[in-house]
Amino acid sequence: MSKAKQKRAKRLGFLGKFKTKDGRKADGSGPTNTAKQPAVHQLKDSRKPEDVRKQRLQDLREKQKLSREREMMKRRNLQTFQCDILQRQREFELKETEMQSLEKHVNFENENSRKAYYREFKKVVEASDVILEVLDARDPLGCRCPQVEQAVIQSGTNKRIVLVLNKIDLVSKEIVEKWIKYLRNEFPTVAFKASTQQQTKNLKRSNVPVTKATSELLSSSACIGADCLMKLLGNYCRNQDIKTAITVGVV
């Protein structure tokens, strides 16, 4: 392109829109470089300095507000946690107070029950000539009460104690015989099986001795061992070959 045409194009404002013969744009500064160069754009803030300062100040205020909110949330969580701890502590103390009150009440009732039982037991011991201490054949020593036996012995020399080994149908004969042999070293002992008949008018009683009782008889509802017990009590009734009446207490 000649200089005259370039000047004319400048005047008309079409500089850069004309192409050279090889197809490249002509911008009046010589041939263009066909290699692509990385474009670096520098964006300049066209806002006024006052607007920039206001925006920065607003951003700072928002950051400070967020930080204050976070701090408040932390404090609230801590306060909530402390309040929860105090509430649980108050509930625990209230439950402890209630449990102590209930325990005192139960102990008071148990103490009253023990006192009432002891009064009745003392009446029975004082009024009875023979005390029958009923034991469970499955655990005789667990059923024995040495305090009861001691109280009967201390109440007078004329008091008698007889151990009644009940529920012999729930253990084998060998075990029953061993327990009788063991217990008779201390007190007279009678093997016994109470009647399991619920109808009081149909109570059965067997005259067969315990040593000769069969398994079928033991599994029946009949009472076993009553004859032996009655004979033993009859012997206590004789005083110098004179039959007298005695009082029997059962524990």
Automatic annotation (TrEMBL):
Biased composition (Basic and acidic residues): 42-55
Region (Disordered): 1-55
Keyword Disulfide bond: no
Domain of life, source organism: Eukaryota
Residue ranges, compositional bias (Basic residues): 1-11
Record key words, sorted: GTP-binding, Nucleotide-binding
InterPro entries: P-loop_NTPase, TRAFAC_YlqF/YawG_RiboMat
PANTHER family: GTP-BINDING PROTEIN-RELATED (PTHR11089), GUANINE NUCLEOTIDE-BINDING PROTEIN-LIKE 3-LIKE PROTEIN (PTHR11089:SF33)
Protein known as: Guanine nucleotide-binding protein-like 3
